[in-house]
Every structure is written in C-alpha cells, then in structure tokens.
Amino acid sequence: xxxRRIIPCLDVRDGRVVKxxxxxxxxxxxxxxEQASRYERDGGDELVILxxxxxxxxxxxxxxxxxxxxAVLGIPxxxxxxxxxxxxxxxxxxxxxxxxxxxxxxxxxxxxLSRLSxxxxxxxxxxxxxxxxxxxxxxxWEVVTHAGTRRTGIDxxxxxxxxxxxxxxxxxxxxxxxxxTRSGYDCALLTAVSTAVRVxxxxxxxxxxxxxxxDALEAGADAVLAASIFHDGDTTPDALKAELAxxxxxxxx
Length: 253
Description:
The chain is an alpha/beta fold.
C-alpha cells in the first residue's frame, strides 16, 4: 500500500514566508530556508514553495530562494509561481526543485503542460488548480487564477481532466473558499476531482486538525498540504502522522 504524504507549504513573497486567508491579508511567517529545514526535521514528506506574487507582478520565480532552501533540504521539493515557459522551469530545476507547479500560465496556455511534460516528464509536471465554488448557488467549482483574483468560468473537473491528458502527473488542488480558514478541506471537491483522474491529488486549503486530514484522504486525496497549522506551531507533520496511523492510514514514519 502506498503511504500517504504530509506536505508543508511555504508561500513566499520577497524572500519571506507569508500566510493569509483566501490568498489575501498576507502576514510574515519566517525565513524559507529555516522553515524548510524545520519541517523536514519534523517529518514532512515533501515541501512545496509557491511564489505567491510572481504572477501578479509579472516576474519569474526567485531561483535564489529555491537554491537556499535546497541547500538545507533533503526531501522532494515542488516549486510554483511565475513559470510561463520551459526555460523558467529549467532554471528552477537547476536551482534545486524536483517538480514544477504551474497554474495561471497553464490556464492561459494549456499547451505549456505538454511542453513541460515532454521536456522534463510527467512526474515533474504538477498542475496547481485553485478552485472556487460557483457563485449564485450554482453547482460545481470554477478555476480561479492570479492568486484567486480572477474567476475564469472554467469547470474544475474538465480542466483537471484536460491537464492530465496534456501531461500533468500530479494535481495540487486548492479550495480557494477554504484557504487559510481552518474550516477543513473541501472533501466534495476532492472526491469529484480524484474520481475523474488517475494521477495523485494533493489536498490544499482549510486544514486545522488531524481529522481534517483523515477526511481529505478518505475523500480521495493522496496527500495533504498545510501551512498555517505548521507555521503557527499548532502541530507537526510527525504529530499528524501519529494520529493518521491510529485511523489505519499508512504513513511514512
């Protein structure tokens, strides 16, 4: 049986870790390299770094931050934010990333996923999908981009299927509605996407308790990503794993 992964996430802006609610109201949460080293010691299986202002500011991801984190990190590292071309991805992989996550640029140019997958492999190509429940009481979710500031009208399930068909080997699925709220993952969203595709799905947005992680994994997620609960010192990856194990969930100890 494959073990389920616990993945701390570092949202980075101007070389510092930040955290907000629904991608807004960002507050400082420390130095990326220091946080990364601590999360590995505390049992994180992988780490995700997302440059949350690169797309909005129209610039590339800061490779020096990736290099600084890689210098202290031994676990797999996924990097996203500001990746618009194969060359951007290559620069970050050279800096120490193991996987590349694309979001807004792939929505604008879906063929980017194919180019990344062909150059670096599907195992290196992650599609990050920010999903918001449709407004006005309509069923389903739509893709939002530019750090949640733009609603696209694109159906999340259809986009997940297309992204995988184009070469994405993993989905980082964030509920915009739950991000930073600590109200639990959107399990209905996770089930809908995980049953539609055959690649791993990482649950993101809303974690507060071990039970939330259990719920997400039972809803179909292959891994759970969290930020606030680790940044604020409420728990550690190892502590979460201990609780998941009591529910019969296989984790790497």
